[in-house]
Amino acid sequence: MYAIILGFITAFTLTYTIIPVIIRVARERRIYDRPNERSSHLEPTPSLGGIGIFAGTICAVVLWTPLETFGVLQYILAAFVLIFLIGVMDDLLPLSPTKKFSGQLLVAIILAYKADVRITSFYGLFGVYQLPELTSFVLSIVVIITIINSFNLIDGIDGLAGSIGLLACVSWGAWFQAADSAALAVVAFSLAGAIVAFMKYNFTPAKIFMGDTGSMLIGTVCAILAVSFIEQNHTPLAAHVYLFDA
C-alpha cells in the first residue's frame, strides 16, 4: 500500500514542478499546438506536457516498485522510453504516419513478446477459449496499438485524455493492488499522480497540452493494464475475492 501512495506523491510532485518549466521553454521556443478542425482551443498552446508526465511516472516507478516484483518491468520501462522518444519526435518534427506507426509497432512487439503482455484466451467469448500462440501475439499487438492511438486521437480536447487516463489508472491500479500485483499497481498510481499534476495546467483554458508524448504514454500504460487485467482476472492463481465474472 505504501508503494502506490509514495509512487503517486512522487510522480505528482515531480510533474507539478516540471510542467511550469516546460511551459516557459515552449513559449520561448514557440513550440505550440496549432488549432485545427479537431481542436477545442482557438489560440496556439504550448505542447510537450508529456515530458513532465513521463519524467514523473518513470522516476516514481523506478523508485517505488518492490525489487522482488521488478521482473519483466524492465521491458515495460524500455517500451515507455521508446514511446516517449517517438512522441517527442512527433511533437517537434512531426513524424510521418508510417514512421510513427512503425515505432508503435515496435513498442507493441516489445510488450507482447518480451513483457508477455498478451491476450491468450477469449475465455468462452464466441465459444473460443485458448488462442494459438501466433493468433495471441498478433491480436495483442493490434489491441495495444489501437489503445495507444485511441488516446492519441482525443488529446485535442482539454482534459479529456487526462481524465479518461486517470480514471483507468486509479480503477485498474486499485484492482491490481488488491490482487497483489504490486508492480502494475505502482505503474498505474504513478501515472495517475503525474496526470493529476498535469491536469491543473490542462483544463480550459489550457496552458499546455500533453502532446503525442503524453497521450501515447498514457495509451501504452492503459493498454498494459487492460490486457494484464483480462489475463489476471481469469488466472486460477489469482483466486481471490476481487475477481470479476461475466
Describe the structure.
With about 250 residues, the protein is an all-alpha fold. α1 (about 1-30) packs parallel to α7. The model has no long low-confidence stretch (mean pLDDT about 90). It has 8 helices and 2 strands, in the order αββααααααα. About 45% of the residues are buried. It has one domain (about 1-240). It has a two-stranded antiparallel ribbon with strand order 1-2.
Topology:
Elements lengths: L1 H28 L2 E2 L11 E2 L3 H15 L8 H20 L4 H18 L18 H21 L6 H19 L3 H18 L11 H23 L13
Antiparallel strand pairs: 1-2
Helix pairs in contact: 1-2, 1-7, 2-3, 2-7, 2-8, 3-4, 3-8, 4-5, 5-8, 6-7, 6-8, 7-8
Structure in a nutshell:
Helices cover 66% and strands 2% of the residues.
Spatial separation of the terminal alpha carbons:
28 Å
Characterize the biggest β-sheet.
Answer: 2 strands, antiparallel
Strand content: under 5%
Structural class: mainly alpha
- Average pLDDT metric: 89
- Shape assignment: globular
Count of the domains:
1
Specify Rg, calculated over alpha carbons: 18 Å
Low-confidence stretches: none
The helix/strand order is: HEEHHHHHHH
In spatial order, strands of the major sheet run 1-2
Helical stretch count? 8
Helix fraction by DSSP (H/I, runs of at least 4): 55-70%
Number of DSSP strands? 2
